């Protein structure tokens, strides 16, 4: 994901997401510049799927992406840091209980 | 927002991330010198991919068969793609695409010296794929573990595509060396011309490469120039033997003790001259890139105007409803 905004006068920057095949999520693959979203889609096809890497593409203007701070130490993620009881491994259950 | 008081802590965290071989991502704090080094390195790499389309591009219309034409076309398109992945990676560091292009055209940013040599015959197409893309692979595979995330990811994509480039080149040469005596001569002639410039692609010798140490510490460079050059030679000699061509280096021989090949020293004065702008094709390459940029101006403007009009019309439609 990019930290830059669209450049005045030039074509804006788009982020590109590709679904590799049915059943998978779209994944961010990179960015490109295009005059508008429709052109961004065509360019994304030519740039990121020259070898059947995708069955579906999303493009979104980089300027429209709202992002958290990137750092893993960011307090933004603190609420999930200390809640080990959200994981199944937190619970001790006798070994002979089946199917659990 | 970063205040000055935060900086030592931020710097320590950055150093720790890099030392632990974790990736630095675009919005992370990074030292300005790290950012500047990466922008320069990635831009230079992107420019090389774009200028690198030219030597082979000349042969697309003159390829001897539809098969060779389709292959060469796909290969040259890939190089354009590599340039675009890399410009994208440079933009995540705050570089501006138009500015990078301008710097290339004005000679303020460099590209690889290798693309200033001409592709004289169709055998050159094969030798470029085999040696030039081969050397590029040697350089690029370690960069898949570059400390800067977007650059590393672009390199993974590039390396996957490069192996097609190298193989199509080798297959072309394999075919030609099994053809007529004249074809074999063409191949040998092309090898003679491209061997030394290919070795120069790894840059000046370590002793004369002042920024290397810092780049290695930052893990934006993972092996020294001389180490990569040696690897390339070790990989390539058996391929040359199998092909039946001679590499033009009288000092080239297997060193039992080192378990590697000994080889001669490239003409680094020539390398400096070509990087300095005085190679066989420097002026032609930049003139052509400039012409392509200027000839494309009306397309960029028309596309922007079209996009704007369509956006306005969409707005208008919204109001009418
Ligand atoms: Fe490439
Ligand atoms: Fe290539």
Give a verbal description of the structure.
The complex is a heterodimer of chains A (100) and B (321). Chain A contains two helices and three strands, in the order ββαβα. Chain A has 100 residues and is of the alpha+beta class. Chain A has a single domain, classed as Phenylacetic acid degradation B (Ubiquitin-like (UB roll)), CATH 3.10.20.520. In chain A, strand 1 and strand 2 (26-33) form a beta hairpin. Mean pLDDT of chain A is 86; it is low at 1-8. Chain B has a single domain (8-279), classed as Ferritin, CATH 1.20.1260.10. The model of chain B has no long low-confidence stretch (mean pLDDT 94). In chain B, helix 2 (32-51) packs antiparallel against helix 4, helix 6 (122-140) runs parallel beside helix 8 (181-200) and helix 6 (122-140) packs antiparallel against helix 10. Chain B is 67% helix and 2% strand. Chain B has 13 helices and two strands; from the N terminus they run H-H-H-H-H-H-H-H-H-H-E-E-H-H-H. Chain B is globular. The A-B interface holds A 1-4, 7, 10-11, 13, 30-33, 35-36, 39, 46-47, 50-51, 67, 69-71, 73 and B 13, 25-28, 74, 77-78, 81, 84-85, 88-89, 91-94, 96-98, 150, 153-154, 157, 161, 300, 303-304, 306-307, 310-311. The complex binds fe (ii) ion (2 copies). One fe (ii) ion binds at residues 79, 133, 136, 162, 165 of chain B.
């Amino acid at each position: 994901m990019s930290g830059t905004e669209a450049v005045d006068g030039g074509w804006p920057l788009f982020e590109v997401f590709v679904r590799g095949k049915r059943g998978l999520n779209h994944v961010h693959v990179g960015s490109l510049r295009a005059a508008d979203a429709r052109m961004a889609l065509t360019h994304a096809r030519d740039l990121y799927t020259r070898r059947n890497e995708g069955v579906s593409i999303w493009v979104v203007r980089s300027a429209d992406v709202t992002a958290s701070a990137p750092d893993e130490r960011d307090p933004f993620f603190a609420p999930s840091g200390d809640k080990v009881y959200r994981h199944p491994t937190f619970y001790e259950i006798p070994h002979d209980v089946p199917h659990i | 927002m970063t205040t000055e008081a935060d900086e030592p802590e931020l710097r320590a965290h950055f150093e720790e991330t890099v030392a632990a071989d974790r990736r630095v991502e675009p919005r992370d704090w990074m030292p300005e010198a790290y950012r500047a080094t990466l922008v320069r390195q990635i831009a230079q790499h992107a420019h090389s991919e774009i200028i690198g389309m030219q030597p082979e591009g000349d042969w697309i219309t003159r390829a001897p068969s539809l098969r060779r034409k389709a292959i060469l076309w796909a290969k040259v398109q890939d190089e354009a793609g590599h340039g675009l992945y890399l410009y994208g990676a440079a933009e995540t560091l705050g570089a501006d695409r138009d500015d990078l292009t301008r710097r290339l055209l004005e000679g303020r940013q460099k590209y690889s010296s290798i693309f200033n040599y001409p592709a004289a015959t169709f055998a050159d197409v094969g030798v470029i794929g085999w040696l030039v893309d081969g050397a590029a692979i040697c350089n690029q595979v370690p960069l898949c573990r570059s400390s800067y995330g977007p650059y590393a990811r672009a390199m993974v994509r590039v390396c996957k595509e490069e192996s097609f480039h190298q193989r199509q080149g080798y297959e072309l040469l394999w075919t030609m060396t099994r053809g007529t005596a004249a074809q074999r001569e063409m191949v040998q002639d092309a090898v003679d011309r491209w061997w030394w410039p290919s070795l120069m692609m790894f840059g000046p010798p370590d002793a004369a490469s002042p920024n290397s140490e810092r780049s290695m510490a930052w893990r934006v460079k993972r092996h020294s120039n001389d180490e990569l050059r040696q690897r390339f030679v070790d990989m390539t000699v058996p391929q040359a033997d199998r092909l039946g061509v001679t590499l033009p280096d009288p000092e080239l021989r297997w060193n039992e003790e080192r378990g590697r090949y000994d080889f001669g020293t490239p003409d680094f004065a020539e390398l400096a001259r070509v990087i300095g702008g005085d190679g066989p094709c420097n002026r032609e390459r930049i003139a052509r890139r400039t012409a392509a940029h200027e000839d494309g101006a009306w397309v960029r403007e028309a596309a922007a105007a079209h996009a704007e009009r369509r956006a306005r019309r969409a707005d208008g439609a919204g109001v009418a409803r």
